[in-house]
Amino acid sequence: MRSLSINDADFAQKFRRIVEDRRESGSDVAGQVASILRDVRSRGDDVLVELTQRFDQHTLSSDSDWSITPGECKAAFDGLDTGLRDALQLAADRIRTYHEAQLPEDRDYTDDAGVRLGARWQAVDAAGLYVPGGRAAYPSSLLMNAIPAKVAGVKRLAVVTPTPKGAVNPLVLAAAHIAGIDEIWRVGGAHAVGALAYGTGRIKRVDVITGPGNAFVAEAKRQLFGVVGIDMVAGPSEILVIADGNNDPDWIAADLLSQAEHDPSAQSILITDDEAFSRQVEDRIDVQSSMLATKSVAQKSWQDHGVIIVVDELAQSIALANELAAEHVELAVEDPSPLFDGIRHAGSIFIGRHAPEAVGDYVAGPNHVLPTGRRARFSSGLSVLDFMKRSSFIELDEAALRAIGPAAISLAEAEGLPAHAKSIESRLK
Amino acid sequence: MRSLSINDADFAQKFRRIVEDRRESGSDVAGQVASILRDVRSRGDDVLVELTQRFDQHTLSSDSDWSITPGECKAAFDGLDTGLRDALQLAADRIRTYHEAQLPEDRDYTDDAGVRLGARWQAVDAAGLYVPGGRAAYPSSLLMNAIPAKVAGVKRLAVVTPTPKGAVNPLVLAAAHIAGIDEIWRVGGAHAVGALAYGTGRIKRVDVITGPGNAFVAEAKRQLFGVVGIDMVAGPSEILVIADGNNDPDWIAADLLSQAEHDPSAQSILITDDEAFSRQVEDRIDVQSSMLATKSVAQKSWQDHGVIIVVDELAQSIALANELAAEHVELAVEDPSPLFDGIRHAGSIFIGRHAPEAVGDYVAGPNHVLPTGRRARFSSGLSVLDFMKRSSFIELDEAALRAIGPAAISLAEAEGLPAHAKSIESRLK
Asked: Which residues of A touch B83 (CB under 8 A)?
């Protein structure tokens, strides 16, 4: 953990280092991923069989080795205890409601020149969702990826997920049932992403791929950007908590640890105007983390990437927050409004003392797939727009072309494109 | 040029080959670009000086070697002949009006559970626009990239453009004046894109990079996706004209050539239900193209990539158009409505006999930066959204947390994330 004061002589330099430190995967992964993708593209299912055997010790032979049916998902859902089923359902309902209001409106109008103009939004035909296996097999993540796609109107939703030694996570299947997933393929890794992008004998190709994964999965998506649409290059999770001294240090410690327990590369940052409070939080982190089942991950993340910054006044935190452009920002202060107004770059903002980031992970409604690694400067959380695209349209009659066509002819000629000019001229003769 | 009939025995196979043929840059470029980007990142301006000398024979030494001032842009604008100035201004005004209506609305509401939820859109701080030099130095392209950024509210707009042997294009400078560009840097190529993404001594880094360029520029943008936001991986331009036999073949020939004259890799496709008409169009293409100043490019594009498909009924063209997912689609038919309704994948659609694609390139208003290479299946033309990002926000008081928090605790425990659960539990004690 690094401890900084805004009054340190070398504060600017140290803070710059924190901002620049992206904690991304190295380029050694890039070469391996490129080779896997080439292989999947040329040899299809055979490569999936080989790599699934090697990485997951799972043999893809019969249909049930390859995929999990909607019936199995329903059975998993029915088998959950009531409390968990209700919790999943509440989460799904709230996520759906929030995302339904994101649906964009079409435009269609005729302007003063007589030109009909507009834009029409439509869903992509098919989307693929990556769902990690093992520790990071989160049903909440499946809901957060699948529901916006369904709300957008995507007809075919295919999940790929590794099932190491054949093990499946019933909670993930239950979430797939709630979300209405059409296909679940028992493959993971960069090769599964390649299969979704290029298609194989078994798996038909999709148009958009979303969902979290390890460094190989993230790199595969990055390399396939343009072949398919992808949601985002995602890095390790981050939280920035801005807190005054009147918080319960236990609450703030838990918030910082909730991010740290995700991943040893995750980053938790506290900015406060109260140095004594910052030491209390540090103590509570030590105590709490020692009791967590996720202790080793949380402690490693906090040790390696945790940061506490003490400022003179909370107003100074605005500029720092905008430099950090963090995935999650909590405003645990008496009057959050001035901070909220000043923050330009953040994935999601949690306002007030009773808004721990964890509610946003599950049940608040907004998407928990958010830009990491300072990408909130230029990108947004996952939304229905990631599963839709817009076609513009233009209709003219002869009068409308006569009104605006001559200007286009002038510009086409000036740009040295005579066929452009002729295509308009010939219609105005 | 390839000529197909939907009744050919091997039609499906031939059509598939046309769909799959992406005409993209090879991966040999990828390695060179990666090395240039690494170099720019570590050595900054020195690399720009070296490569600008090598590729553009332009020496970057004094300030005026490096950049073009807003004053010079204004002088270029004032120096244009009135007709051209008015045409540029009409184009800018119409583009601005269309894009202003794209500005997204913020959301801020409190739901039944007492949870305040919302989304706030804000512009990125800075955007960089690539403007090609030489043949493809199009002022229209500068307007189409810069105006949406300005409408979005971007404070700093930096253009990079190569000026081979020091030559600048007055029309591009005039467009920069109209669009309100803040900085113009006289560098081009992958190194210029790298400078925008990473920043150098002279050029401050930006958050989003848009604009067309050659294969090196496109590959640089692709590799930098995630370091900055980019608009799109752009390939050669395409048009699909769906035309019945009642069109003037001269008009349709000019439309096909207007795409072909852009680039030897551009693709023009005609689908018609009238074989005799298709032969007339072919003849008119031969005659017209031989008279064009852009003859060599247009003829090569048409020879290598042109396609004519004859169908039995125009309704069959809908499925073909959706497979092709072309950048531009013209519907030059008696009743365009059924075709328009059926087309799901297209960058921009031009409706009716008096809507040649060239009006969309300049003055119609919608953006002419559109998805190519079948990417209209999953992506959209450039818009103000490419220069903005959305932060979600969540505010709860104790009662609201009591309403939805317990479900989040259940899910966090089921996912094995105890600090998540504790961050909520400790607030509900």
From this structure: 410
Residue A260 domain-assigned (yes or no): yes
Contact B270/A at CB under 8 A: no
Residue A78 belongs to domain spanning: 28-108+123-230
Count of domains for chain A: 3
**CB within 8 Å: A423 and B251:** yes
Q: Answer yes or no: do A216 and A245 share one domain.
A: no
pLDDT at B136 over 90: no
Instruction: Grade residue A26 by pLDDT with cuts at 50, 70 and 90.
Output: low
> B10 to chain A nearest CA, in Å?
21
> Final residue of a domain: which of B205, B230, B255?
B230
Which residue in A222, A350, A396 is closest to B394 by CB distance? A350
Q: Which helix (H) or strand (E) holds B3?
A: strand B2-5
Query: Who wins on pLDDT, A409 or A134?
Result: A409
The 10s digit of each residue's pLDDT in A50-69 is 999 999 999 999 999 999 99
Domain match, A287 and A328 both = yes
Q: Is position B56 within any domain?
A: yes
Q: Is B217 part of any domain?
A: yes
**CA pseudo-torsion sign A397, A400, A402, A405:** negative
Domain-ending residue, one of B230, B256, B276: B230
Residue pairs spanning A and B at CB distance below 8 A: 371
Closest Cβ opposite residue B418 in set A229, A250, A292: A292
Distance from CA of A326 to the nearest CA of B (A): 11
Quick check: A225 contacting B, CB < 8 Å? yes
A239 contacts: CB under 8 Å, gap ≥ 6:
A255, A256, A258, A259, A267, A268, A269, A326, A327, A328, A329, A330, A357
The letter for the amino acid at A125 is D
User: Is B134 a member of any domain?
Assistant: yes
Read off the amino acid at residue B196: L
Is B248 an 8 Å CB contact of chain A?
yes
- Does A190 lie in the same domain as A65? yes
Interface contact B402, partner A, CB < 8 A: no
Nearest CA of chain A to the CA of B349: how many Å?
5
On the question of pLDDT at A241 being above 90, the answer is yes
Whether residues B313 and B423 share a domain: the answer is no
- Decide: A97 and A89 in contact? Cβ < 8 Å: no
Concerning whether A327 is annotated as a catalytic residue, the answer is yes
B130 and B242 assigned to the same domain: no
Report residue B100 CA to chain centroid gap: 18
In terms of domains, do A182 and A261 share one?
no
Active-site residue flag, A354: no
CA triplet A399, A404, A410: central angle to 5 degrees?
130
Contact A107 B97 (CB under 8 A): no
Q: In terms of domains, do B329 and B417 share one?
A: no
A56, A200: one domain: yes
**B162: domain CATH number?**
3.40.50.1980
> Per DSSP, which regions of B75-232 are E strands?
107-110, 116-123, 126-130, 156-160, 183-185, 208-210, 229-230
Mean pLDDT, chain A, rounded, equals: 95
| Facing residue for B378 by CB, picked from A119, A389, A414 | A389
In three-state secondary structure terms, B23 is coil
Q: Does B98 touch chain A (CB under 8 A)?
A: yes
pLDDT at B255 over 70: yes
Residue for token pair 């992808």: A230
